[in-house]
Amino acid sequence: MSELLPSFLLAVAQASPRGYTPFVDPLDLHDYWWFTIMPLAFGISLAYKSVRLHDLSRVWPQTFLMTAQVVAGMIGLAVAAFLIVEVIVYGGW
Amino acid sequence: MTRHDRDESFQPVALLLACALPGLGHAYLGDVKRGVLIFSSIMGLFLGGILIGGIDVVDRTEDKWWFILQAGVGPTAFAANAVHQSVYKLEFRGPRGPIRQSGRPDPADNPNNQPAPAKKSLGRVNEVGSLYTAMAGMLNLIVVIDAAWRHAGVRRRNSDVAPA
Question: Domain ranges in chain B?
């Protein structure tokens, strides 16, 4: 049995060496990678608030609030980095 | 010292269960809803990272430092790595000696042009997938600590309810 499962998985993998297999091949998100920040922030917020809150009745509003704060913070940092590099260091864009 | 501090006690079984599966320690302590939320969020992040970056983001041999962080998820991370190493890496026996790697190797190592069973994860997609899985591992360390030293009130509350 222990050898049967890897053989089965290897057969599945080799059946589509060029096609896309979910959870095996990477998604083609190279142009939209920034979109993945939002689910990441949501997952981190949900795990954190699930541990932190004493009263779980407020978990969803608190999770969405923290997600918005994290995303807004990252956008703010990006804007600040852009202004520092392009405006302060190089004197305008 | 607050009342909350006094209630804290070490929970070794909850610690072991939280290490085995995210959220299981809290469920053992009687906080099932919290356990389900923790399981959903951490496994969602871990599986989401593998969905985005492919199985290649969990790789103990080629991405050792990322794997140390991912290992916080527990046996799931070790199982993903074992499947990656044993199934999705081919052993190429080229003139420069045997190598095991995912994706298409250097033609010098692959003179027979064997097809690779999984595409190599590269660039931003690999970074994002690695970040998702590493964050899942680090968050589970917080969860394990919280389950191990959680105040025993939840469990006691369930067992101390006097019959009406």
Answer: 9-148
